[in-house]
Amino acid sequence: MMRMSCLITLVVVLLGALDVHTAFADTVLIVDGSRIVGTIEQLADGRLVIATEFAGRLEIDWSKIKAFTTEQKVNVNLASGDRLVGVVELPADTELPVVQTAMGPINIAVQDITAIWPEGREDPQIVAVRADAKKAQEAMKPKWSATLEAGAVRTEGNTDTLDARGRLNVRRKSQEDLLKFYLAAEYAEKDDERNRNEYKGGILYENLLTDRWNWYTRLELEFDEFEDLDLRATAAAGVGYYWLKKPDHELQTRIGAGYRHEAYDTGETTDDAVVDLGLDYRLDITPWAQFTHSTVWAPNIEELGDYRLTLDTALALPLANSDVWKLKLGIANEYNSDPQPGFDRLDNTYYANIVLEVK
To answer: Is residue 62 located within the same domain as residue 77?
Structure first.
């Protein structure tokens, strides 16, 4: 008998707990007749959010709600700027919700309700404003990224050769400006004798004047042992324009004026004022494939037939579905209209580099 009495008591307690749990559940009736039971977390921006046990958090368009009831006190913001606190009842047969406040029931119009959220919590509109402000602040912070490229070819047998190249790019971009650095080197041997030894480095800075226009300045330094070039320094400044400016598609041209200094092993030096023309193109073909092209043309202002033209065209593909490691296939062309005696005007380099990208 005692066991039966304990069992009955336990059942009563469980049923009571179930009743209490149900008593504190909010109810939402949809225009199609569906009934949702849970806890209303908020109404903001025309969408009501209710947490349920069977489907998690649901977002329902306010216009599709026919009736709802909250079992606990909530905050109700009105279009007038006033705020009520109490239990809200919106019967299915009326458009006038009732807020049971400490001062008694108050009828309000549905269209006057701008937000609802549980008592003791923060206004969701304030939370949203704070989130937007934080997002805007994060967007204004400069973003750093870097890529390290390396490629080499080694042959042994009748002829021993080594051809190696590397490049480091560092980029800092904000909503107002862009700063880029690069260092590049190429080295080659044939039968243990060096036949290529070249180093380059440069810096480019852009500052936006408008959404499309910018001013820029750049500096590039170059050493080439087998051109007898001790130093080629080019400094330039001008304006640029973005013809295309999308997250996945950019086309920019630049025009400016600059100064080029060249010093050779022979003791010869040249100093020229030059025109600085450039083009940069980028297309993200897919989320995993990127095509890039750059052109720089720098003719002598006094003699346009004396110029240097460099082009670099490449396609970058991911390795093993990685966002960090990529394979870069490309061709680099360098044309010097007035080279040193014994050297060709055009120098082509076909490359396949492994790229490590860090953001």
So the answer is: yes
**How does DSSP assign 173-240, residue by residue?**
E-SSEEEEEEEEEEEEEETTEEEEEEEEEEEEEEEESSSSEEEEEEEEEEEEGGGTEEEEEEEEEEEE
3-state helix, strand, coil in the chain (%, to 5): 15, 65, 25
**Domain count of the fold of the chain:** 2
Type and span of the H or E element at 98: strand 98-101
pLDDT cut 90: percent of the chain above it: 42
User: Which domain does 68 fall in, by range?
Assistant: 2-137
Same-domain pairing of 186 and 247: yes
- Could you tell me which residue, 315 or 13, shows the higher pLDDT? 315
> Is the separation of the CB atoms in 166 and 184 below 8 Å?
yes
Model pTM? Answer: 0.65
303 and 195 both lie in a single domain: yes
Residue 31 has pLDDT above 50, yes or no: yes
**Is the pLDDT at 58 greater than 70, yes or no?**
yes
pLDDT, tens only, 254-284: 999 999 999 998 889 999 999 999 999 999 9
Q: Return the amino acid letter for 116.
A: I
Q: Are residues 106 and 160 in the same domain?
A: no
Longest dimension (CA), the chain: 116
Length of the chain: 359
Q: Rounded mean pLDDT of 162-178?
A: 92
* Residue where a domain terminates, one of 89, 118, 137: 137
The H or E element spanning position 129 is helix 124-140
One-letter amino acid for residue 289 of the chain:
A
Last residue of a domain, one of 137, 153, 170: 137
pLDDT of residue 303: 87
